[in-house]
Fold:
Amino acid sequence: MIEGVQIDMLSGDRLSRMTPNEKIRHILDDVHNGIVVVLERGLTPEEQGKLLEYTMMEIAPGKFSGIEIETYPASDSGKHVIGKLFGRKTDAQRLMVIGPVDQLKMISREKDRLVGWVSPSAN
Amino acid sequence: MEDSTIIELYFDRNEKAIDETAKKYGNLCFKIANNILLNHEDSEECVNDTYMSLWTKIPPTYPTCFTAFICRIVRFLSIKKLDYNSALKRSQHMTILYSELEDILPSENFSPHHEYEDIGKLISLFLRKEKKDSRNVFIRKYYFFDSISEIAHRYSFSESKIKNMLYHSRIRLRNFLRKEGVEINSGGGSKLMIDIVDTPGVTTKIDYHEFLEYGMDQEEAINRAREATEGVAEAMHWLREDIDGVIYVLDSTQDPFMHVNIMMVGIIEARKLPVIIVANKIDLPDAAPQRIKSAFPQHPVVEISGLEGNNMEMLYKKITEVFK
Structure:
């Protein structure tokens, strides 16, 4: 059997059929199981806030320390890069990577490139 | 001897007053001093200074509660002595005690007219509302600086129960203090009364091992980590439900483009809340507040040093402008 880290890539179509709570539950369940989740279309600011809130509530010392989350702008429309990041519409279009903090370490984040390091679970 | 009789001796300028005070309160005074100073000689010195102080204060003062009066003096003198000693070597014991409360108490940087006495009164008010057991444990820990094991022994509770009681008291104190109004004065006649929710730094991860580096034992570190997670979760909840404006404080020495900052500002903007970005720690040599300004050009950014108190007036002015 191949050993490694499972990556769960969710398409924009699939995400659009899920409610905010379903998305967050899906992500957190995956992350708890040591799975790295890649969302074709990132979460909205409200969903990100809820994800953070639920993550905090589920942190268990010695068992689960939280998440690593990263994203980058999906398109270049000529506006200021941060302006694009903050706009509601562009936020929902960004690819987003989420994983367990003890396994996923983002190394660099550029306008059009994310570099991360994933290690297998220690358990 | 009754307290009133001892006080009368002071009023009669009878030196027996000091002997009687030492007989009745000597052990208590030494214990308070030694809990703070952890040094036998320094503690004895503070106790003697306490007697001297009583001699000069009474008369004219007539203490309504002699025990509280003595405790306050010995505590004050011991902390003063500790400050002097700390100039040479900081006491880790006291640093940890204070750090337990510093996240809870209102920050003086955001409340220029919120005097320490006011905070003291608020804490007294809070303690009066606490159950007797919780109140006693809190006072033993943070006023008399008793150790957990001493408190557990005194009240016949387990040490873990005492830790748990203190943990929940700190949370209740934090929630209590949040509800109080803070007056912001811009200095130009503009005033604003606001309630402040002073949250821990927002993060997506909290590992209790980081708290171990501050000299805490594992259980204490786990409690602190739990407190931090609850603080962040609460902050996110408040942001979603019940906040009228945000002061988002960033460390000028760090990269402002970290995802958590992008996310937080995105959430604030989605909620259409007024926001002031504070570029803190500009006193440090590697501070780059300009990076923060260029990262968030759509929002007012105020550069400050919370430590040095630089540009605080500018921040208060901005608060009264943006949140009016």
